Amino acid sequence: xxxxxxxxADIEKFTRxxxxxxxxxxxxxxxxxxxEIRDLLLPPAGxxxxxxxxxxxxxxxxxxxxxxxxxDDFQRALSLAARLFxxxxxxxxxGTDPVRLRVGLHQGGVQYVTDxxxxxxxxxxxxNQAQRVMDAANPGxxxxxxxxxxxxxxxxxxxxxxxxxxxxxxxxxSDPHEVLVKHGRRVxxxxxxxxxxxxxxxxAREEEPLSKKLAVLTQTGxxxxxxxxxxxxxxxxxxxxxxxxxxxxxxxxxxxxxxTVTLSPHLERLxxxxxxxxxxxxxxxxxxxxxxxxxxHIAAWREYLTDLATRRPKVDIxxxxxAEPPYFGASLLDWDRPAGTIHVSPYVWNTTTKMCPGFxxxxxxxxxxxxxxxxxxxxxxxxxxxxxxxxxTN
Length: 394
Fold this sequence. Notes:
Largest sheet: 10 strands, mixed
Structural class: alpha+beta
Order of helices and strands: EHEEHEEEHEHEEEEEEHEHEHEEEEHE
Distance between the termini: 57 Å
Oligomer: single chain
């Protein structure tokens, strides 16, 4: 399988432009890219092209097949990125509206395929990942993936490169940033600051991608389960702060007892909140437990937490009982740290908790994303107002 550097670019707010302007921009971008990589698109007879262009409507992805010379391959990719930003600068200067690009570079394996038009094309995870890197960029920003850094860069020092043998270009790179991309995945990127002569074509490398401060909202799959190999169990096992707002916790507690699901050795806080047995008396028995059953659940958690407090005396452990009917369950993991996660699941009458729809909020580098603030304040409210069933702190 050949490997390639994929340069993915799109034009910000492309669909807001007139159809005439859209066509002008696509034609101008295509012309500039062809000028930069024409020699790679015309291989000797019988050979595969060393560059494949995939139009995307509001931009394009260009797969530059690696030649075996990492220095030359990376310079070629940077030259193409610079050419794209020069296109945007020229169109902004000559047109009536600003043209701003987002560009992402990633390296990985691709496969040659024949598309429906009978032309040579490529596919592979590297193209999807390059798009994710590009999606994380601010308008006017160029990002590179960690795969690019590991293969082509020894440090963040300046990297000079030619641009069609007409300009002297250079690029420098930022420290790593962890950003959130599609499907809640976290990706490490670096900002590439690209210069042509004395003109900076991209945002400064000190400009952080806004995507590192965004939260991702995803729907929880049904039926809900605690799989120790993924999802909630893995996040729980790494969290320093854990807040559980639960009805009974009857599915989680046995897994904690037998170490199927584990708590982090660096755990600092474990707050558990449950409704009192009396608060359930006036509600239908299904799907809520009876008052007697709820007393058993509370006693089981009290016993577990008391034992945990003995084994981990430095952990802030709290069992809080609230005398109100339960309207939702939630887990808040590292709610005051980067890479936190909040799961919320409203209870649906006559439906088991495993089948209650829910959603997850996750973030990368923002301590309190706006969408999560209400839940964090709610957790603090429960801590301040719930009846104290167990409290052991330092």
